[in-house]
Amino acid sequence: MGEKDSFFINRVKSVRFAFKGAFLLLTTEASIKVQFGIGVLVTIAGFYFKISTTEWIIQTLVIATIMALEGVNTAIEAIADFIHPEHHPKIGLIKDLAAGAVFIFAVAAVIAGCIIYIPKLLALT
Which of 18, 42, 94, 120 is found 20 to 30 A from 84 (Cα to Cα)? Predict the structure, then answer.
């Protein structure tokens, strides 16, 4: 019985740490705040335009993925700065690659948003 309790307690602790990390990202990182704000706006737009279930799934996954990627990028930058606080070309490359991954997905997110919302906006006219 002790192993199951230990496993359960460890899962609860993991969730608590994850929640703490998400809270820290949302309250301290400007890029996450921007992404969260955009996420709120497109969620409001989704209710206004009564987007389909499929569009909701896509929109939710895109919002979550961009915010998760921003979090990973922030973690990579923090590790890089911790390991090598002074400027170093390799650290700069690592940070640029991580930021590039976020950028690629952000472009895809904008395209997905345009595919969902442009027809709805055009229908208003």
Answer: 18
Strands (E), 16-106: none
Per residue in 108-123, pLDDT tens?
A: 999 999 999 999 999 9
Bind-site residues for ATP = 29, 77, 86-88, 95-96
- Reply yes or no on whether 55 is catalytic: no
Model confidence pLDDT, tens digit, residues 39-56: 999 999 999 999 999 999
Would residue 18 count as lying in a domain?
A: no
Question: 66, 70, 73, 102: which one is catalytic?
Answer: 70
Domain that holds residue 60: 29-124
Q: Is there a contact between 66 and 102 (Cβ–Cβ < 8 Å)? A: yes
Binding-site residue set:
29, 70, 77, 86-88, 95-96
- Note whether residue 8 is domain-resident: no
